[in-house]
Amino acid sequence: MNVRSVVFPIIETELISLVKDGFNIVIHTPPVTMPEPDFNSVKLFLTVDNIEEAKLKAVELGGRSFEGLWSNPLFTVCNIADSDGNHIQLRQFR
């Protein structure tokens, strides 16, 4: 990897965000204790324009919406599950 081509927009104690060519990897520790069935080592993150509308749509399509929102310096996030039970995190940039 050519380090000069990587942008480091945020490196803080709570997260590291790496961006290159429109692809973003965020490494962080969840800010809450999570029950074992709700924990996934890799989770799909989807960026949405409106978290509340996206949560409603997930439920409408047979998924689940979990309680709780939390924020970091980049975005606000929440968790949903699709109809197969796969956990997905929605994020809305600030």
Describe this structure in words.
The chain is mainly β. The chain has 1 helix and 8 strands. The strands form 2 sheets. Strands 4, 5, 6, 7 and 8 form a 5-stranded mixed β-sheet that branches. The chain has a 3-stranded antiparallel β-sheet with strand order 1-2-3, with no helix packed on it. It is globular and about 35 Å long. The N terminus is likely disordered.
Shape: globular
Question: What would the average pLDDT be, to the nearest integer?
Answer: 78
- The tally of helices reads 1
What separation lies between the terminal Cα atoms?
29 Å
The secondary-structure element order is EEEEHEEEE
Largest sheet: 5 strands, mixed
Percent of residues in β-strands: 35-45%
> What is the number of E strands?
8
- The amount of helix comes to 10-25%
The value of Rg in angstroms is 14 Å
Runs in which pLDDT lies below 50 for 5 or more consecutive residues are 1-8
Class derived from helix and strand content:
mainly beta
In short:
The protein has one helix at 51-60; strands at 7-11, 15-20, 23-28, 44-47, 64-65, 70-71, 75-81, 87-93. It is mostly beta strands. Strand 2 (15-20) and strand 3 (23-28) form a beta hairpin.
SSE layout and pairings?
Blueprint: E1 7-11, E2 15-20, E3 23-28, E4 44-47, H1 51-60, E5 64-65, E6 70-71, E7 75-81, E8 87-93
Parallel strand pairs: 4-8
Antiparallel strand pairs: 1-2, 2-3, 5-7, 6-7, 7-8
